[in-house]
Amino acid sequence: MKINRKNQFLKQLAGLFKPALHLYMVLLVLMFHLNAHCQTAKTKPIDNSQRNVLFAKAAGLNNGVSISWLEQTWNTSALYHKPFGDADFVLLKKLGFKSIRLPVAFEDYNRKNISTARILRYINAVFKQCKRYGFKLVIDYHDGEINDNNYADATKKAITNWLQISRHYKKESPDYLFFEIYNEPPHMDPQKWKDAAYNIVTAIRTVDKQRILLVGASNFNSIYELSRFVRLSDEHIIYTFHFYEPFFFTHQGAAWGGDQVSTTGVRFPYDGKNFPQLNPKAKGTWGETNYYQYQRDGNEQSVKDKLQIVKNWSIKYDVPILCSEYGVYNKYADADSRARYIKAVRKTLATLHIPGMLWDYNTNFSIFAGKPSPEHLSPDFKDALGY
């Protein structure tokens, strides 16, 4: 009898708790869905008119060129002479360029006890000329040393500089001044780089909510890494990439490229009759692989196919993209091939509606045969620029 009474009591008790348990489970499921929604919707999506404005601002950077000066870490006298002036801006305007990208090696100057405040005075002078001649300016954070091992500390260094830069230029119109947060993060864990990029962007936003930021992927702003990148939630970003495909051609003979680019005399497009022998130094490197692939890679169709990769990514996320560097090292590649390559890239970028910026104005990737001037620009390069 005692056992039956105990069982009956437990059944009655369970009946009392059943409605409460059901309500608890409903609330738990509701909380789970609300929490999942909050994690997904990190920012309020911008409407089509705002997105169109963002795409238009990206398009406004088209026909740009990098001026290599404040990123020359090897040049101890870089700060003591200005390699361009009013005549250069007049020439750039005449050639149809519309924007300037200014790479700056902030961290290298900091290591040399040259303050960011001092460097900003040089940038101010460039920006003043840009405004005078109607150029948009991109300040590019060049020559950072981030990698898999130091990315936390390297991110802090970049943030320290960007906070100072952002405060300095906070009142300048976002229509004319852009920030490229980090040039060519190396071959590193893509997620670590994305975390770094997120933290840099977030830090800048504490000072400047509206500035358009340029963000690229790891592996030196690779088109392939960008195609795997999941966009950030920030709605004021133009995604950037560098295009030097095929690297075997564009960097032939470049000492910093190592043995893989030691084969020189490579023409564009591929010319089987005049294709050079593989440099023995390139054997066993990617340069040997690229040597045998150049028959397929060294042509305009290959350029189109590769640029289509990032265009598809842009369409997928409905975000603007920018080719912030393209060009050819000019020491070993013949001028005609360089002109044909630049024309092919510019033509394809235009077809795909991707704005582009040439590297660079007046150093070892320059399109001029001597000091920049119309007289030192060949008919082929004038044709490549549409001049």
From TrEMBL:
Listed A to Z, the keywords are:
Carbohydrate metabolism, Cellulose degradation, Glycosidase, Hydrolase, Polysaccharide degradation
Per the record, a Pfam family? Cellulase
SUPFAM superfamilies the record matches: (Trans)glycosidases
Note the superkingdom of the native organism.
Answer: Bacteria
Q: What is this protein called?
A: Cellulase family glycosylhydrolase
The organism of origin for this protein: Mucilaginibacter jinjuensis
State whether keyword Hydrolase applies: yes
Q: Which residues form a coiled coil?
A: none
